[in-house]
Amino acid sequence: MRELSLNILDIAQNSIVAGATLTEIVVNENTKENTLLIGIYDNGCGMTAEQVRNVIDPFFTTRTTRKVGMGIPLFKMAAEQTGGSFKIESEKGVGTKIEALFKTDNIDFTPLGDIASTIVTIVSMNNDKEFLYKRVLDDNEFVFSTVEIKKILDGVPLSEPSVMSWIEQYLNEQYNELLKG
Amino acid sequence: MKSLEELLAIKEKAQAQLAARDAEGNDGIRVVVGMATCGIAAGARPVLKALVDEVAKRNVQHVSVTQTGCIGMCQYEPIVEVFEPGKEKVTYVQMTAEKAQKVVAEHLVNGKPVVEYTVGAITK
Q: Are A13 and B35 in contact, with CB atoms under 8 Å apart?
């Protein structure tokens, strides 16, 4: 993947397939420690310990676990190649938690890329699901919640182009505010 | 700055448009983009965005753009399928944002599939 935000787009899709009604996506940058933490937490159907072992092994994937395939191994590799780490925890019937820690000063660090576009794609293509996107930059953060936005939208779907465009610009502006400190 | 008040105004406008669309009835064209790991890695996100933007810009009615999983020809991703009622499915392969714009203009607006981008033309 050319951007970590594409990995996020891919991994979040697993949460949707797992029937998650709420998926939380956290992107946490720490410029002092030179780290980037990406967390994806869902309340989907979860996996057994054996399934968790399988999803991190690209060569163990069978047709029945195909909904996961190469996605998790690629994301894990992207984190570990920077000297970071990768963690996946899952409980059947409860949900799945994925955390990838990246060392941003490593030459093998893949840029985050267009995260706003990724979030817009995820939320607009899954209008019946809820998402919470939290962006942290050192001591500042902002949260984007589809639950809150939908209260305003009153039935207008997030896939409406004018709404998609608003969300994308809103996310970019909120991040620019974080950059100001 | 983008404000929630602005979103409220967008909502009012969209609601009126949606009501008008519903009144006309919708038996339209379905455009589906493959968004599994293979599609995303090959560049499906900008293709999807270009399709949505172009459909909105040209105000094309009766077209819905959605995503799906792996379509099964990973080497030809990004793949876009066009389902039109009463017609055979058209499969576009190795798509880019630019090609997507052309598909909207020529296929979705003017009704003429862009043959050179289809799976039949590229796998020959």
A: yes
pTM of the prediction?
Answer: 0.91
What pLDDT does A177 receive?
94
User: A5, A6, A8, A10: which to substitute to probe chain B, counting the most B Cβ within 10 Å?
Assistant: A10
Contact between B27 and B62 under an 8 Å Cβ cutoff? The reply is yes
Q: Domain A4-180 belongs to what architecture?
A: 2-Layer Sandwich (3.30)
The secondary structure element, H or E, covering residue A175 is: helix A161-180
Residues of A in contact with B38 (CB under 8 A): 70
Instruction: Tell me how far apart the alpha carbons of residues B107 and A140 are, in angstroms, rounded to a whole number.
Output: 47
Locate the domains of chain A by residue range. Answer: 4-180
How buried is residue B67: exposed, middle or buried, by Cβ count under 10 Å (0-12/13-18/19+)? buried
Place of tokens 């810009």: B57
Q: CA torsion sign, A101 to A62 to A20 to A145? A: positive
CATH topology of domain B26-122: Glutaredoxin (3.40.30)
Best residue in A2, A4, A7, A13 to probe B by mutation, most B CBs within 10 Å?
A13
pLDDT tens for each residue of chain A, 181 residues long: 889 999 999 999 999 999 999 999 999 999 999 999 999 999 999 999 988 988 888 776 555 545 557 889 999 999 999 999 999 999 999 999 999 999 999 999 999 999 999 999 999 999 999 999 999 999 999 999 999 999 999 999 999 889 999 999 999 999 999 999 7
ipTM: 0.85
Q: Identify the contact set of chain B against chain A, taking CB-CB distances under 8 A.
A: 1-2, 4, 6-8, 10-11, 13-15, 18, 35-38, 40-41, 45-46, 48-49, 52-53, 55-56, 66-67, 69-70
**Domain extents in chain B:** 26-122
- With tokens 């630019």, the residue in question is B98
